[in-house]
Specification:
Distance between the termini: 39 Å
Order of helices and strands: EHEEHEHEHEHEEHEHEHEEHHEEEEEH
Strand content: 15-25%
Length: 380
């Protein structure tokens, strides 16, 4: 890594990404399931030439993600699929979504009945499915719980309308968040209890995302066994649509120390931002790991890391180091490729981090640098 790059920047390590993809491909080959990329969690389309060597398509959350999937992932390859799901579709978007999607997922019977004929007229080959709320989840935080109280995501058993069956080829559920196969097993049991009588008329069942398949310690063999048993029992295809598991621990956010102030403790102000550049650290919340650091007080020198915005709560956490930090030092936040640049903002006009790939031959490729126009063009 000899090339000098101005901080902040996200850096995706291509070799680590390939390692995750190989695990996901192993699941596909051994279980017979299809794994598709959830763009909401990982949308670094400069890596798609690698990703599509392994995965079978993309799942998108609306028109713009579907366009990205079609243009940069599935273009000119009929074997790669574009799936689109939205909590509700808009009249102005639905025609184009139908045209570019292989599968469209409706959130409610109301939406399905409203658009099914229109979608089929535009794309006779499109497959339609309905998202189900199995009303069972052990998601760690309510903000990420698709099956929480009063959830708008998916159709509950009480609201299932059997008239949808003449239109759909699949059922979808998504109930997990960074969870292991035991959580899937619990959700699947609830899903089967309520809806299994409809499975025989389906072509496929989509198990959604949130499966932490590439995390160390995940029971991959149990996942394979569950999928194989389910497919054999009901005679259906199975989809998985991870986003985080694709980008899990594949790269970092690199920043620099701009200043160090003291107010009861030492505070390092960085040229990045928790609020703008790693929003899940505040939403989850969680403390991102910093390379070479320990917990507060664990090592000799402790600092609170703060972002370079005016938000008082723009704080990454407290970290300790063997040696004192200096202005200009590099700070590397681990595991900052998934759910970061897909969600980041230009709050306060702060510069977006550049996007960089560490290639498998260890050369650096600067994919995108951002500036004033990226901020200005979001405004009017």
């Amino acid at each position: 890594m000899s090339k000098k790059i101005n901080t902040p920047y996200y850096m995706c390590d291509e070799s680590l990404l390939r390692a995750n993809l190989e695990i996901l491909d192993y699941v596909q080959k051994e279980s017979g399931a299809k794994v598709i990329l959830a763009l909401k969690g990982f949308a670094m389309w400069s890596t798609f030439p690698l990703v599509k060597q392994y995965l079978k398509g993309c799942t998108s959350s609306g028109l713009h993600e579907a366009l990205l999937a079609r243009e940069e992932f599935a273009k000119d390859d009929p074997n790669l699929e574009v799936h689109t799901y939205s909590p509700a579709y808009k009249d102005e978007d639905i025609d184009q979504i139908a045209e570019i999607s292989d599968h469209i997922v409706f959130n409610s019977p109301n939406q399905l009945f409203k658009y099914c004929d229109r979608v089929k007229n535009i794309n006779p080959n499109i497959s339609m499915s309905l998202r189900i709320n199995p009303e069972q989840s052990s998601s760690p935080k309510d903000i990420y719980n698709p099956c929480g109280l009063y959830s708008r995501l998916g159709t509950t058993f009480a609201n299932f309308d059997e008239r949808v069956l003449e239109h759909i080829k699949g059922l979808n559920f998504h109930a997990l968040c960074e969870q292991n196969v035991d959580a899937l097993e619990d959700v699947l049991a609830a899903f089967e209890t309520k809806f299994s009588k409809y499975f025989k008329s389906m072509k496929y069942i989509n198990f959604g995302g949130g499966h932490h398949i590439t995390k160390k310690g995940y029971d991959v063999e149990k996942l394979i066994r569950i999928i194989k048993e389910f497919r054999a029992k009901y005679g259906v295809d199975v989809y998985l649509e991870p986003g985080e598991a694709v980008g899990w621990e594949t790269g970092v956010l690199v920043s620099s120390v701009l200043d160090i102030v003291h107010n009861g403790m030492d505070i390092a102000i960085l040229d990045t931002s928790a609020e703008a550049h790693m929003p899940d650290t505040l939403a989850m919340p969680y403390r991102a790991m910093v390379r070479g650091s320990g917990e507060a007080g664990e090592k000799k020198h402790t600092y609170r890391f703060g972002g370079n915005t005016c938000l008082a709560g723009d704080i990454m956490g407290d970290y300790s180091f063997d040696e004192p930090l200096k202005v200009g030092d590099t700070v590397i936040f681990e595991d900052q490729i998934h759910y970061t640049f897909v969600k980041n903002t230009t709050f306060n006009g702060i510069k977006l981090p550049s996007l960089v790939i560490l290639k498998e031959d260890k050369t650096l490729d600067i994919i995108k640098e951002f500036g004033y126009q990226d901020y200005k063009n979001r405004l009017s």
